[in-house]
């Protein structure tokens, strides 16, 4: 039951990402709620469900983005597996460690995504890239405890 | 005063029920007031759009913004009309304030519009006063950048920038924004100008798509 509720939460996160979240953007950058969802699933769900939910979250994000089809569907489960492995090596119980891990993962995700887009001929200048990547990683990490709290309350 | 207090104690239960009923009614009325305010604001915006549409030389269709891109790498909005309403890829999106973007995908009932602050957006533009040409691109932020300006170009802060008509898809003379500051490229070969868009891109709710 908890898994299905979380599936609903992922859908709500995707809808928020494409609508209301724009009003809280800082310098045009908004936090990645779907990535936080993947992070939550990787820590608190079994491997099979966590990967399935990550694929679903990636698919939803790709659907709502432009020129990115397949990138998030591919990267989200990959990061999910990395997180599962990481959570077995180090303890991710502390909020600060979670925020730090998420910050680094969002940075890596953005760098990989940009390299893929570059091969597709979708070029973004270095200044914009650095500003957006850093702000997105920071903003997503900062809102992590709030989103975790909301998800826990919903579950 | 005492009579009122005693009355309050005697009729405590009746007053309590009445208070609850009035609180509910106040909440309901507050909600209706809010809805009415939203409708009033929407009406005001749509009246402006209609007036602009009637006065304009272009054939346009009004659309509503129903979503935005989920990532931070593009500035794209989803609109509520598509191919069935005659919208095609490449059509230009404007508001009464100026150029807003271009349709990049048109499905049957919805379309995606790339806004002018998207980094993949580029339009040939001129400075209205000096007729200096340049290429206006998006920066994902609140301003645009006008590139490839010669070192000796005649451009000042406050100058108005409009479309040049050289990019065939965009009609000539559409307002883009005004120059806020001018800088020199890292190479030192050319200059650039930062432009404040005439359209408030972060809070667009309705757009006009130029059909013809």
Largest sheet of chain A: none
Q: Provide mean pLDDT of chain A, rounded.
A: 85
The strand line-up of the biggest sheet of chain B is: 1-2-5-4-3-12
Provide the gyration radius of chain A in Å: 15 Å
Beta-sheet strand percentage of chain B? 35-45%
Radius of gyration of chain B: 25 Å
Helix fraction of chain B by DSSP (H/I, runs of at least 4): 25-40%
Helix count, DSSP H or I runs of 4 or more residues of chain A: 6
Low-confidence blocks of residues of chain B: none
How do the helices and strands follow one another from N- to C-terminus of chain B?
HHEEEEEEEEEEEE
What general outline of chain A do the C-alpha atoms trace? globular
Measured by residues with Cβ under 8 Å of the partner chain's Cβ, the largest interface is: A-B, 30 and 23 residues
The total of beta strands of chain B comes to 12
Distance between the termini of chain B: 75 Å
Helix content of chain A: over 70%
Terminal-residue CA separation of chain A: 9 Å
| 3D shape of chain B | elongated
Given the helix and strand composition of chain A, which structural class is it?
Answer: mainly alpha
Largest sheet of chain B: 6 strands, antiparallel, barrel
The run of helices and strands of chain A is HHHHHH
Low-confidence stretches of chain A are none
Would you give an account of this structure?
- The complex is a heterodimer of chains A (155) and B (212).
- Chain A has 155 residues and is mainly α.
- Chain A is 77% helix and 0% strand.
- The model of chain A has no long low-confidence stretch (mean pLDDT 85).
- Chain B is an alpha+beta fold and 212 residues long.
- In chain B, 25% of the residues lie in helices and 36% in strands.
- Chain B contains 2 helices and 12 strands.
- Chain B is elongated, with a radius of gyration of 25 Å.
- Chain B starts with a helix and ends with a strand.
- The model of chain B has no long low-confidence stretch (mean pLDDT 86).
- The chains are: A mainly alpha (155), B alpha+beta (212).
- Chain A binds chain B through residues 14, 17-19, 22, 25, 27-30, 32, 34, 60-61, 64-68, 113-114, 117, 122, 124-125, 128, 131-132, 135-136, and chain B through 67-76, 78, 104-105, 112, 114, 117, 119-120, 139-142, 202.
């Amino acid at each position: 039951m908890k898994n299905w509720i979380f599936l609903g939460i992922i859908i709500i996160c995707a809808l928020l990402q494409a609508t209301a979240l724009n009003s809280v953007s800082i310098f045009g950058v908004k936090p990645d709620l779907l990535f936080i969802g993947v992070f939550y699933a990787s820590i608190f769900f079994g491997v099979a469900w966590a990967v399935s939910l990550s694929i679903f979250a990636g698919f939803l994000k790709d659907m709502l983005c432009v020129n990115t089809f397949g990138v998030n569907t591919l990267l989200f489960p990959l990061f999910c597996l990395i997180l599962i492995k990481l959570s077995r090596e180090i303890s991710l119980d502390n909020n600060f460690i979670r925020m730090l891990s998420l910050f680094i993962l969002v940075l890596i995700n953005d760098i990989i995504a940009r390299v893929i887009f570059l091969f597709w001929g979708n070029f973004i200048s270095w200044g914009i890239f650095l500003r957006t990547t850093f702000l997105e990683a920071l903003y997503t990490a900062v809102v992590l405890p709030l989103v975790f709290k909301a998800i826990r309350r919903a579950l | 005063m005492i009579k009122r207090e005693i009355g309050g104690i005697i009729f405590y239960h009746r007053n309590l029920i009445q208070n609850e009923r009035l609180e509910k009614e106040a909440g309901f009325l507050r909600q209706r007031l809010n809805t009415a305010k939203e409708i009033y604001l929407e009406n005001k915006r749509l009246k402006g759009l209609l007036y602009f549409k009637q006065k304009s030389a272009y054939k346009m269709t009004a659309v509503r913004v129903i979503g935005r891109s989920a990532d931070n790498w593009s500035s794209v909005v989803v609109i509520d009309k598509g191919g069935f309403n005659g919208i095609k890829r490449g059509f230009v999106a404007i508001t009464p304030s100026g150029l807003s973007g271009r349709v990049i995908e048109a499905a049957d009932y919805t379309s995606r519009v790339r806004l002018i602050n998207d980094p993949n957006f580029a339009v040939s533009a001129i400075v209205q006063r000096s007729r200096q040409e340049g290429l206006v691109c998006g920066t994902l932020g609140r301003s645009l950048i006008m590139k490839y300006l010669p070192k000796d170009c005649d451009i000042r802060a406050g100058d108005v920038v409009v479309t040049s008509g050289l990019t065939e898809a965009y009609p000539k003379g559409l307002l883009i924004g005004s120059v806020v500051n001018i800088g020199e490229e890292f190479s030192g070969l050319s200059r650039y100008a930062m432009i404040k868009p005439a359209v408030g891109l972060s809070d667009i709710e309705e757009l006009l798509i130029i059909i013809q």
